[in-house]
């Protein structure tokens, strides 16, 4: 919506961004928009992203908090092109939501590297990523006892992904920070996430 040219009506994904102005290359029209950072809360399956997001919603209405999983119900998710399409839609939705003056926080496990290689990433002042991590023992407990997951392949895959976040600071072109949740309540983790966001406002 915000990227539809008010002069010529072009809705093509070809707009340029200059600070807080959108530029239509078809007719040269420029119009202002609210440009804010996009926040991604990531981590392996079972680490507590959705639970934390729900707690953030209880603590504040300063942000719009969304879970990327709902795209799996309405969009294909078999190829890299499918995942790029999902992320483009996440970003497109976010840039429009931000026009109400509120930043958007997404929870999403995989394909984080794709966020910096999309058309719609130009509409954000920055994209910040925070990965929730925990100990292998803690993760296994959360998955088996908290979510009743018994598939060892799933559990081991999550452990490997958790270890990646613990031993790296970048995925693709996108840097990320980590937050260790061991020994913390959901409330404490949510408060830590909000403190992290405020440092990057």
Provide a descriptive summary of the structure in words:
- With 201 residues, the chain is α/β, with parallel strands linked by helices.
- The protein folds into 2 domains: 1-33; 35-199, P-loop containing nucleotide triphosphate hydrolases (Rossmann fold, 3-Layer(aba) Sandwich), CATH 3.40.50.
- The protein has helices spanning 49-59, 80-97, 136-146, 152-167, 186-199, and strands spanning 16-18, 21-23, 30-32, 38-42, 64-67, 104-107, 127-133, 170-171, 174-175, 177-180.
- The strands form 3 sheets. A 5-stranded parallel beta sheet has the order 5-6-4-7-10, sandwiched between helices. Strands 1-2-3 form a 3-stranded antiparallel beta sheet, with no helix packed on it. It has a two-stranded antiparallel sheet with strand order 8-9.
- The two termini are 24 Å apart.
- The mean pLDDT is 96.
List keywords for this structure.
single chain; about 200 residues; alpha/beta; Rossmann fold; 5-stranded parallel β-sheet; 3-stranded antiparallel β-sheet; 5 helices
């Amino acid at each position: 919506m915000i990227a539809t040219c008010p002069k010529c009506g072009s809705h093509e994904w070809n707009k340029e961004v200059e600070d807080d102005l959108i530029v239509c290359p078809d007719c040269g029209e420029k119009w202002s928009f609210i440009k804010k950072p996009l926040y991604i809360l990531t981590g392996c399956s079972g680490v507590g992203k959705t639970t934390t997001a729900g707690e953030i919603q209880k603590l504040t209405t300063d942000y719009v908090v969304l879970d990327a999983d709902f795209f799996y119900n309405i969009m294909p998710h078999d190829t890299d092109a499918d995942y790029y399409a999902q992320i483009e839609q996440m970003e497109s939705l976010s840039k429009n939501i931000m026009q109400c003056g509120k930043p958007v926080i997404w929870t999403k496990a995989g394909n984080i590297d794709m966020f910096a290689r999309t058309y719609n990433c130009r509409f954000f002042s920055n994209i910040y990523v925070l990965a929730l991590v925990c100990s292998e023992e803690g993760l296994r407990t959360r998955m088996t006892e908290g979510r009743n997951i018994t598939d060892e392949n799933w559990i081991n895959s999550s452990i490997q992904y958790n270890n990646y976040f613990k031993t790296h600071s970048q995925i693709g072109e996108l840097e990320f920070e980590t937050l260790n949740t061991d020994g913390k309540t959901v409330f404490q983790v949510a408060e830590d996430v909000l403190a992290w966001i405020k440092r990057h406002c």
